[in-house]
Amino acid sequence: MKILRIIGLLFLFMVSVNGVGHTAINPVIDLEVHALEHSEVPKLVVVKFHADWCGSCKAMGPVVTDLTNKLDGQSVLFTQLDFTNNSTKHQSFLLASVLGIDDVVVNNEGTGFLLVIDGKTKQVKATPTRHQTVKEMTKVIADLL
């Protein structure tokens, strides 16, 4: 993760230098640098395992939206891995690798469920399914925070 921050900072520095060699003042770039320098690792990562053809996935769509709204402002990253076709599978494996959860993804085949993963240790803490209510899922996640 630190290497990505360093690469991002170097890129932003190169972009912000004008042709004369002086640093240009650019508030957007300054905000991006500040965000990179002060970014935090989310306490939890909630990953939806999705495929367009999956009935459980379709049922979980509004539930995930509700969860996202109820936990707004908390240290929770919501993301989705899409296993609909080969292209989306490939992108999902790349995203899982960037998030540092590629081992978890490889060991959890199937769709239509959520994984609640510790943001630092990358360990699975819970596996909510469509059989739980939004209230039950919210409690599970809130208790892990």
Give the gist of this structure.
With 145 residues, the protein is an alpha+beta fold. Helices cover 50% and strands 16% of the residues. It contains six helices and four strands, in the order ααβαβααββα.
Structural account:
The structure is a single chain. The protein has 145 residues and is an alpha+beta fold. It folds into two domains: 2-37, no CATH class; 44-144, Glutaredoxin (3-Layer(aba) Sandwich). It has helices at 2-16, 27-37, 55-70, 86-99, 102-106, 134-144, and strands spanning 44-50, 76-82, 113-118, 124-126. Strands 2-1-3-4 form a four-stranded mixed beta sheet, sandwiched between helices. Helix 3 (55-70) links the parallel strand 1 and strand 2 (76-82). The longest helix is centred in the middle third of the chain and has 16 residues, at 55-70. It is globular and about 35 Å long. Residues 1-36 have low confidence and may be disordered. This is Thioredoxin domain-containing protein. Keywords: Redox-active center.
The total count of helices amounts to 6
Main beta sheet strand tally, sense and closure: 4 strands, mixed
**Overall number of domains:** 2
Which runs of at least 5 residues are low in confidence (pLDDT < 50)?
Answer: 1-36
CATH superfamily placement of the largest domain = Glutaredoxin
* Spatial separation of the terminal alpha carbons: 22 Å
- State the strand order across the main sheet: 2-1-3-4
CATH architecture of the largest domain: 3-Layer(aba) Sandwich
Helix/strand-derived category reads alpha+beta
- Encode the helix/strand succession as letters: HHEHEHHEEH
Mean pLDDT: 78
| Overall radius of gyration | 18 Å
Domain Thioredoxin: 22-145
Protein name: Thioredoxin domain-containing protein
Pfam family, one: Thioredoxin
Organism: Agaribacillus aureus
